[in-house]
Amino acid sequence: MADPNEQQKQDLHKEEPFEEEPFQEDLYEEDLYEDDDSEEDLYEEDLYEEDLYEEDDSEEESIPFEYSATVTPGAAEMTELLSRGSIEILGLMPWSSNGTYLVQVTRGEDYAPAIYKPERGERPLWDFPGALWKREVATYELSRSLGFGSVPTTVARVSAPMGRGSLQAFVPALFSEHYFTLRDRSELAEQLKTLCALDLIANSADRKGGHCLIDEHNQIWAIDNGLSFHEEAKLRTVIWDFAGEPLPNRSAEAMQHLLETGLGAELVELLTPAEQQATLRRTQQVLAEGHFPFDRTGRSYPWPLV
């Protein structure tokens, strides 16, 4: 079986000329600190109407299959299992915009369910380059290098049932919960701020409320990270509640360390040179401002919200 790391190194992006794009500086405009009754505020209030995210008692709240695993999503052994284990497709995940599969990964006596996103299952997007699976892996690698732990273990697999793609540890979450049910819980604020910081650096273009999971240990996990790392400013997220608040010291220190040490070999292999430099520029901008930005337009939200 081919070593996925070696295979991936053979598929590095070629250097391409690019023009530097400024980070979304308008997110940090000073006039956003002032209170006003503009239409933008009204628009934002509409987005938070309760009926948009109220709980539906008709929905299944438990895991939609019998979850069983010998390795948990955050365990160190999960990387080895996902990287080298055999993959058995269990079924197609419903309501996914791209081909997304629930699989069972087995290596020796260890096994765990995972989410497999093959490149061939991706729908072409007019405003985003292909290979979204690489961006899934890149978001995990960024979270790992920052020490955030916000993303379930995600690896690249070349040898897989439907060809190369990403393989992410399945999180046995409380699926009735999402960002809008979690944001008012004070004990989760630091985790949500950490995720917000991660999305700013990764330029997340699709952080819906339903992409924020919580497990039985109150650990928040960010999933569906494929729309990220675009070299142009495309931030779209539901996490704007911390606008104007200072960055947590831990996040700021991690960003500074990233700038001093660089992105690391794993991220360099997954991103183009333009995307790498844009990631560093975003990190510099967020760190220089020292606080979470505002949404000036009221349009930097994904749809649907959940």
TrEMBL record:
Residues 1-16 have a biased composition (Basic and acidic residues). The lineage of its organism: unclassified sequences, metagenomes, ecological metagenomes. This is Unannotated protein. InterPro entries: CHP03843. Residues 17-63 have a biased composition (Acidic residues). It comes from freshwater metagenome. Residues 1-65 are annotated as: Disordered.
